[in-house]
Amino acid sequence: MSNENLPVQKSEILFLYESTYSVPNGDPFTGEQRYDDETKKVLVSDVRIKRFIRDYFVERGVDIFVVNDKSALATESDKKVTGSGAALRMLSLKTKYKDHPEVLRDGKKGKPEYDAVKIMQKCIDVRLFGGISTEEGDAVNITGAVQFALLNPSLNKVDLRIHQNTSVFSSSEDKSRGAIGTTTIVPYSLNQIHGWINPYSARHTGLKEDDIKLMFQALWASINNANTRTKSNQNALLLLQIVYSSSIKKLYGVDRLIKLETKKQDEQIRSSNDYSLDLSALKEAASRDIVSNINFYTEKTELRNELISLPKFVEMDL
Questions:
Q1: Inter-residue long-range contacts of 208-213, CB under 8 Å, 24+ positions, other chains counted
Q2: What is this structure's pTM?
Q3: Looking at the structure, do residues 204 and 290 belong to the same domain, yes or no?
Q4: Residue 212 and residue 284 in one domain
Q5: Helix axes of 209-225 and 46-59: crossing angle, nearest 10 degrees
Q6: Per the domain annotation, does 175 fall within a domain?
């Protein structure tokens, strides 16, 4: 069974980026880095990755459905609406696309009725990741065509470090010297993000190949350009899209195709100079008939030269 008549090809994603003396993904309740105490590996959630991508879209004026400041993209009259953020966002989208007949229900007479699915599909994050709307009489729950692993472990083991810092702001009215706090930071981690693109779900979300390309651009650029205190020191290293020749085939263990080989025996790695990437399993996977091609992007010269010379490896244009 092939991918014929499907809007996109079935594929899997591997994205590698490095974090140096930073906090790749803090727990929202404690602020501490997500961490597996048994494997000693740093963890990055799918929500964190989607947030990077959405932030990139917002900065470039691309419509998204899930926004941090839910009132930022609404008009003044919209802000009077009570209820969920999704309801407010739907109203702001209706206002924006009120003159677009493609978002209306087919076959309706009289007062125009909006189709919640069609409105939501105007947002690229819905086409990619899906979305939920609780519109009265038109509730929507769209499963996204693009999904990332719930938690993504780093390729290397990490000993977290406690960093003390002081605040220039007073902690209370009777304490004018500020406050002392601690932060758990990651000296160095090579984070591997694993994702999937499902062509059948893409039928329902309206996902197109151009959306996937824009998502890859967002993923790469957002990591490199993050400028918050805990995310500034990060660099995108390698992006892979393993494209299948059949919509029902799948490689086993894609998240284990790349192995890290450390050059240090008794010390932990602190930069890309301290290790090499073993791509032998990836190359073997590329030779199988179920793999159509492997799209890749990297700005590391030696890695690019190695991949571009291999059969089925195609360089992306980001």
A1: 208/7, 208/8, 208/127, 209/7, 209/8, 211/124, 211/127, 211/128, 212/8, 212/128, 212/146, 212/241, 213/316, 213/318
A2: 0.90
A3: yes
A4: yes
A5: 100
A6: no
Q: Is 304 helix (H, G, I), strand (E, B) or coil?
A: helix
User: Structural domain tally of the chain?
Assistant: 2
In b/e form, how buried is each residue of 235-257, taking b as 16+ CB within 10 angstroms? ebbbbbbbbbeebebebeebeeb
Residue type, 306: E
CA–CA separation, 221 vs 215, rounded Å? 10
Residue 219 domain flag: yes
The answer on 129 and 244 residing in a single domain is: no
Residues 15 and 135 in one domain: no
Q: Could you report the per-residue pLDDT of 111-125, keeping only the tens digit for each?
A: 668 899 999 999 999
Output phi, psi for 43, to 5 deg: -120, 135
Going by C-beta distance under 8 Å and a sequence separation of 6 or more, which residues neighbour residue 296? 238, 239, 240, 241, 307, 313, 314, 315, 316
pLDDT at residue number 1: 44
Using pLDDT thresholds of 50, 70 and 90, give the confidence band for residue 76. Answer: very low
Same domain, 225 and 99: no
Strands (E), 158-223: 161-166, 180-197
Q: Is residue 265 part of a domain?
A: yes
- Quick check: is 68 in a domain? no
Strands (DSSP E) found in 2-49 = 11-22, 35-36, 41-45
Q: Residue 234: which of 8, 11, 21 has the closest Cα?
A: 21
Are 199 and 289 contained in the same domain? yes
Q: What is the extent of the structural domain holding 16?
A: 11-60+146-156+186-315
Looking at the fold, whether 201 and 236 belong to one and the same domain comes out as yes
Q: Same domain for 131 and 151?
A: no
Q: If we measure between CA atoms, which residue out of 253, 243, 141, 132 comes closest to residue 197?
A: 243
pLDDT by residue (tens digit) across 280-313? 999 999 999 999 999 999 999 999 999 999 999 9
Handedness of CA 161, 164, 167, 173 (dihedral sign): positive
pLDDT greater at residue 3 or residue 20: 20
DSSP codes joined into one string, 85-118: HHHHHHHHHHHHTTT-GGGBPTT--SS--B-HHH
